[in-house]
Automatic annotation (TrEMBL):
Record-linked CDD domains: PBP2_GcdR_TrpI_HvrB_AmpR_like
Protein name: Transcriptional regulator GcvA
Classification via Pfam families: HTH_1, LysR_substrate
Species annotation: Reyranella humidisoli
Keyword line: DNA-binding, Transcription, Transcription regulation
Family: Belongs to the LysR transcriptional regulatory family.
Record-linked PANTHER family: HTH-TYPE TRANSCRIPTIONAL REGULATOR, HTH-TYPE TRANSCRIPTIONAL REGULATOR TRPI
Stretches assigned to the HTH lysR-type domain: 6-63
Length: 300
């Protein structure tokens, strides 16, 4: 059944003007001009074919039709407001699915996640890990943290964590007369490679001005954390990325043997469809994780 309803703006203007008994006060509440309120009410009256107000020199009164119409209009707005509040309250909680890489989840996100849960205990976070790019329009994912240069079509991308690349190894590799003392000593140690970054060692050695080290040799891993674990176990030297090795550096399980670090063109970005930020739980997570990033940048 087709509904024949008056314009919503006209109904809002009528309800506000009737509540204040003033077009001027109604205009201030609705952030429009007094002339706009007068125009909208007049349009509603023309639509209904009835006068809703009795206008006098400096006063405004409801007509008999206006008095009869106002309770139903006010009730409709109250019900709409209540339904909206219930919907928003429901959206404030529930499940929030965050997609990111397993390495970033384990070493950066999860250790900090307790702060978000304490502040938002009505939200149940689900961490989904993988290296593929998620289609937000088709998959059950709310927000993501991606690794790259920050350019993904139809998505907002906010830079969270920059990245420096530097050698890392177990403290034991630095000890003794044959320990790792300077970059040229790398030729005597096993280089640990990460499959996603096959040229990393060559790029770092070139940037550091190191010669005589065969960057193609060593042990390769398809998972960054496996390479870092091998480094902790003393198997060799890996190229660490600070967001992923920071916890192990602080704990002393890994050390940085040289001062030279190479800044990466890549970083970790918070990504989401532009319209998603209107949802309370997504905005809550976005604000929390961005605040962590800002604190980290100030401390750097």
């Amino acid at each position: 059944m087709k509904r024949s309803l008056p314009p919503l703006n006209g109904l809002r203007a009528f309800e506000a003007a009737a509540r204040h008994m003033s077009f001027t006060d109604a205009a201030e509440e609705l952030s429009v001009t007094q002339a706009a309120i007068s125009h909208q009410v007049r349009g509603l009256e023309q639509r209904l074919g009835l006068k809703l107000f009795v206008r006098r020199n400096r006063s405004l009164l409801l007509s008999e039709a206006g008095q009869a119409y106002l309770p139903a209009v006010r009730s409709a707005f109250d019900q709409l407001n209540e339904a909206t509040e219930k919907l928003l309250q429901k959206d404030k909680g529930g499940h929030l699915t965050v997609t990111t890489t397993a390495s970033f989840a384990m070493k950066w996100l999860v250790p900090r996640l307790g702060g978000f849960q304490r502040a938002n205990n009505e939200i149940d976070v689900r961490i989904s890990t993988g290296t593929g790019l998620v289609d937000f329009s088709r998959e059950d994912v709310d927000i993501g943290i991606r690794y790259g240069r920050g350019q993904w079509p139809n998505l907002m991308a906010e830079r969270l964590v920059a990245e420096d690349v530097m050698p890392v190894c177990a403290p034991s590799l630095l000890k003794g007369p044959n320990g790792l003392k300077k970059p040229a000593d790398l030729k005597r140690f096993t280089l640990l490679h990460i499959g996603n970054f096959p040229d990393d060692w060559q790029v770092w050695l070139t940037a550091a001005g190191v010669k005589g080290v065969d960057a193609s040799r060593g042990v390769s891993f398809d998972f960054a954390l496996a390479a870092y674990q091998a480094a902790m176990d003393g198997l060799g030297v890996a190229l660490g990325r600070n967001p992923l090795v920071e916890p192990d550096l602080k704990a002393g399980r890994l050390v940085v043997p040289f001062e030279f670090k190479r800044s990466s063109d890549f970083a970790y970005y918070l990504v989401y469809p532009p319209e998603a930020i209107r949802r309370r739980k997504i905005k809550a997570f976005r604000d929390w994780v961005v605040s962590l990033s800002e604190v980290a940048q100030q401390a750097a």
